[in-house]
Amino acid sequence: MMKIRDYLKIGLVGLVLSGCQKVSHVNSYMNYKHLINQESVSLERTIGEKTLLDFPKEIPGAESVETYLAPTSNYCLVHIRQTHLTENNSKGELEKIKKVQDNIYQILSFLIENYNIKKVYEEGIIIGSHVKNSCAEINYLKKDLNNIKKEDPNLFESYQYFEKWKEYDAVYRIASDTGLGIAGAENPENLDKAQDTYDRLKGLEFFRWLTEKEKIYMAVHENREDFFLELASKENNPLVVVVFGANHAWGGRYSCGEEYGRRRESFKDNLAFWGMNNQKKIFSLVEITPFGIIH
Fold it and tell me: Half-sphere exposure of 132 toward its Cβ, with a 13 Å CA cutoff?
């Protein structure tokens, strides 16, 4: 996903209605607390709890590692927060993006070495898309570029594109170096809607933006986050790693506490809402912030 974060640069917007939660979800959220209260916690830790509790507090390349335990959890979602390319980045912006992506590379290297992860989900990649994986595989297996250029010109063109920008894409770079799999974290409908919403934002005046803010956040943030939880819940591995924009927030004040809710702008506590409707597939959360992320 290359463009939809630009609107977040409007600094004043980030100060308005900060920490809001969608009112219609409140009853479900209140029930979430009851669902995972201490009475329901077994003496034996679940796999999601164990994974979260054993997760390191310090990782090379990470400014912070924040953990949020959900009792009875089956999964531990690891969100590596990123800054990524957008349209027409300035030289200064490119330098900042590269710094963040270099640190994400270190974080992923640590996870590969210590948790033997085989794949990482990536923002902007549609499920079932294999182009980026194939291009990374060309490097990993040292395939003959002349044959690829002759046999599959489109793949070769994609390979050239990813090679040109790989210093700004830690996932592609580490997949090229280690054979790590790249998994799509998006469906085309949500991604198209997010892009359409972003494009429409360019023509909105500031106060019109505010009146439509909830609708915008649902399209650009919440729907995509909900989709990923559904996708992650089908994994066999309890540790699910996703590299996604730093402004995304799967948690909220019900799943991660009041302080989280105050400092992260979101209209929906995705983890709490998901947990109420999927009681056998609860997620604990790890948020890793690389050095270089602008807070």
Answer: 26
Separation CA 156–CA 139 (nearest Å): 12
Which residues form the domain of 189? 6-41+57-73+94-290
Per-residue model confidence as pLDDT tens digits over 190-234: 999 998 887 887 777 776 767 888 888 899 999 999 999 999 999
Domain count, the chain: 1
In a domain, 80, yes or no: no
Q: Are 219 and 194 in contact (CB under 8 A)?
A: yes
Strand 62-68, strand 283-290: pairing: antiparallel
DSSP string computed for 186-230: E-HHHHHHHHHHHHHHTT--HHHHHHTHHHHHIIIIIHHHHHHHH
Coil vs helix vs strand at 62: strand
Helix, coil or strand: residue 69: coil
Residue 78 lies in a domain: no
Residues whose CB falls within 8 Å of the CB of residue 255, separated by 6 or more in sequence, listed in order: 32, 68, 70, 269, 271, 272, 275, 285
Q: How far apart are CA 76 and CA 88, in angstroms?
A: 36
Answer whether residue 89 is part of any domain. no
Helix axes 170-178 and 131-140, enclosed angle (nearest 10): 50
- Characterise 128 by phi-psi region: left (phi > 0), alpha (psi -120 to 50), beta (else): left
CB of 43 closer than 8 Å to CB of 250:
no
In a domain, 46, yes or no: no
What residue has token string 């709490």? 272
Contact 286, 81 (CB under 8 A): no
Neighbours of 228 (CB within 10 A): 26
**pTM value surpassing 0.85:** yes
